[in-house]
Amino acid sequence: MDIPKDHPRYKSLMTRERLAHMVEEGMVTPTGLISHGRGEAYDYLMGEKSIEPAIQAEKVAAAYLLQARNPVVCINGNAAALDADNLIALAKAVPAKIEVNLFHRTPERMEKIIAYLESKGAGKVLGRDPDCRIEGLNHDRALCTKEGIFDSDVIVVPIEDGDRAEALVAMGKTVISIDLNPLSRTSCKATVPISDEMTRALENIIRFVGELRGNDEAIIKTIKEYSSADNRCETVRCICDTLMAGFDTAGDE
Q1: Is residue 236 a part of any domain in this protein?
Q2: What is the structure's pLDDT at 18?
Q3: Quick one: pLDDT at residue 22?
């Protein structure tokens, strides 16, 4: 589709086109399109920018990743299709391992996503040969590797299923979610829920990794001062402010 770059929805439309193409390629499932549309709606409500609570959470995420013993960036089909480059860049910046984990799992789809990430420069990608299970899950997202997800202490889970986020927290892991919906089960259960568009979130975390690296005092302070409940509350307040600003503007016209 030929979308002019000056179209006000250019980025959004290009993202949708890329996801639709990835469905044809077998990397994204049709239901993944529904998930993306639902998230995009929340981005509208946040003004399509990284709001202050998101920036705060992204800094905390960087702090946890720098403290981690075995950090892992977990990737599903939607995440790979949306921004494989920045997911790989984050893993390299920390550094962290990468593992692919899918709900709609088939050997063919796993291979396509892993091969795609490797073609982007990811290096070793875990997930082809799972040898462990996440406790409390009865579907294919329970499958994981001991080297990666199972033995991780800090894990980044963009576009996550809430039940798996909850199960990972129950295993004692620090779970960093990227989910535009601050009211989702994932956001409610994650240790550090980030309500931001994925590319913006990843770029911010990468920036904070660079800023915090080597500054143990700042890392500890950043984590100590953070409250996920307060942060989500502020996120909802920002959404309400955006909605009311829209009404105010409409009334002036």
Answers
A1: no
A2: 81
A3: 79
- Give this prediction's pTM: 0.91
Total domains in the fold of the chain: 1
- The string over 80-100, giving b where at least 16 C-beta atoms fall within 10 Å of a residue's C-beta and e elsewhere, is bbbbbebbbbbbebbebbbbb
208/210 Cα distance (integer angstroms)? 5
Distance CA 161, CA 187 (A): 10
Amino acid 76: pLDDT: 93
pLDDT, residue 39, reads 79
User: Which residue's entry shows tokens 């049709």?
Assistant: 30
pLDDT at 248: 63
Residue 253 is predicted with a pLDDT of 47
Domain assignment present for residue 27? The answer is no
Residue 175 included in any domain: yes
- Find, among 142, 134, 152, the residue nearest to 94 by Cα: 152
Domain limits for position 91? 52-226
Pairing of strands 143-144, 132-133: antiparallel
Residue numbers of the chain with a pLDDT score lower than 50:
253
Q: Is the dihedral of CA 76, 79, 83, 88 positive or negative?
A: negative
Query: Rounded to the nearest 5°, which phi and psi values hold at 194?
Result: -110, 115
The CATH number that applies at residue 83 is: 3.40.50.12640
**Best CA proximity match to 64, nearest among 199, 147, 157, 144:** 157
Residue 30 CB coordination number (10 Å): 9
Res 241: pLDDT: 92
